[in-house]
Amino acid sequence: MEVIIERACGMDVHKDSITACIITPKGKEIQTFSTKTVFLLQLIDWIKGHGCTHVAMESTGVFWKPIVNLLEAESIEFLVVNAQHMKAVPGRKTDVKDAEWIAKLLRHGLLKASFIPDRNQRELRELVRYRRSIIEERARQHNRIQKVLEGANIKLGSVVSDIMGVSSLDMLRAIADG
User: Is pLDDT at 88 greater than 60 in this prediction?
Assistant: First the structure.
């Protein structure tokens, strides 16, 4: 099979460790790194030191995100690959074999990357999702307050349009003060 990418790195990414395999015309080298930032920086330096132009990794939860952020900052091409495509291959049982297999597939151009939006889009998505979760939590708290009031036979919702409005809160403070 024809080699398309001369210097490639395959990674098997987990919560606490990354097994990386670099394949170059001179051979292969495998190392395991911790996922703490200082070790991720060492991983990037190791990749750059071997002159790797492309990196591929399985998309495992959110564990790929810090690595992609660093690769992106160094302008190293990366592919985050759907783990389902990788698991279809029999006989791979260890992280080392996984990393080596990913590197080999990458070198021969046989990997299909998952869509990863650019960094600004990823940050905006994260912010919007967080905002939505805060809004949903606020609605849950309002519903709990309404339920407690109804349980105490305080029909505030029948008198005002918003039980968390200014006049509603004044009425609740007055009730609490006796």
Answer: no
pLDDT band at 114 (very low <50, low <70, confident <90, very high): confident
Q: Which pLDDT band holds residue 58 (cuts at 50, 70, 90)?
A: confident
What pLDDT is recorded for position 96? Answer: 86
Q: CA 62, 51, 5, 34 torsion: positive or negative? A: negative
Q: What is the pTM of this model?
A: 0.71
Nearest-angstrom CA–CA distance, 20 and 11: 4
- 19/175 Cα distance (integer angstroms): 62
Residue 68 is inside which H or E element, if any? helix 65-73
What residue has token string 């590197």? Answer: 103
CB under 8 Å, gap of 24 or more: what pairs does 21-27 form? 21/96, 21/99, 21/100, 21/102, 21/103, 22/46, 22/47, 22/50, 22/52, 22/103, 23/100, 23/103, 23/104, 23/107, 24/50, 24/51, 24/52
Q: Please check the confidence at residue 120 and state whether its pLDDT lies above 60.
A: yes
Q: Is there a contact between 104 and 10 (Cβ–Cβ < 8 Å)?
A: yes
State yes or no: pLDDT of 74 exceeds 60: yes
Helix (H) or strand (E) holding 33: strand 27-34
Dihedral angle over CA of 159, 163, 164, 166, nearest 10? 0
